[in-house]
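note to self — DONT lose this again. spent like an hour looking for the file last time. sequence + predicted structure for the chain T wanted, 320 res
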Amino acid sequence: MKLKMMYSFLNSDLKNIEQTLEETVQAESPLLHQASLHLLKAGGKRIRPVFVLLAGKFGTYDINKIKNVAVALELIHMASLVHDDVIDDAELRRGKPTIKAKWDNKVAMYTGDYIFARSLELITEIQKPFAHQILSDTLVELCIGEIEQIKDKYNFEQNLRDYFRRIKRKTAILIAVSCQLGAIAADVEEEIHKKLYRFGYYVGMSYQIIDDVLDFTGTEKELGKPAGDDLHQGNITLPVLFAMEDEEIRKEIIKVRETTELSEIKKITSLIKDSGAIERSLQVSDLYLTKALDILKDLPQHRAKKTLMDIAKVIGRRSF
């Protein structure tokens, strides 16, 4: 079953969220509005809003309250993508020109800042101070994660702990908080919203590891960029760390720089795929997925629980 079919019962609420997203990125500045809308129209899985809504189903579900959380968290995710594209000098995002490519770095940075500010404005609708504290702590972690990623570019001496900490900050924490804040907005009891946070964290870790695997196993058409592009950009992911345990492969990998020819990246990508690193990375993803599914067993019986389980399985074992 396709991912979107699993949560089709949320379609009307997701349309509401999409409309609110479009309204929220409107700006007095035509350029700012155009750039924000360009990013929004590029699409996306909207997996964070889906998790917000499903978590809200465990409590008093009021779409008019919960949608503010869903939109705010999706905007934070979008803002981080804009800033990422500037840092990575990326020309394409989901096969379409990035804001920095269509305009320039300054427009991209201010667009990201604007989207980010709009998200904070929306979240003030949730009248719960501890929810704001959770989000503040999350934003601090996201920023640290971005800085760590810049610092660790082409750092081939980093270890597994560095990698796991980075993907927690880069991806897992925002998915975790999507689950937790969706539940908090619906007045779910503390024990449940903390479990939903842990579920989201484990799913997010699995999700990012799969993304890092797909960067080597996907085609250029599927990825919207050449295979191995993360490594070419200096991002050291789990398959790379595993592959570098082979000293001969390590010698080739540590030569990689921004100026490395694509033909060489293709050769190294093949070495990584043949090393067993992909299979080992998938095993680690499965460990996180199993932990996520175990947490769901403790949650109250609800249609949302079954849907979270189905989504987690698809995310953790997706090909594209």
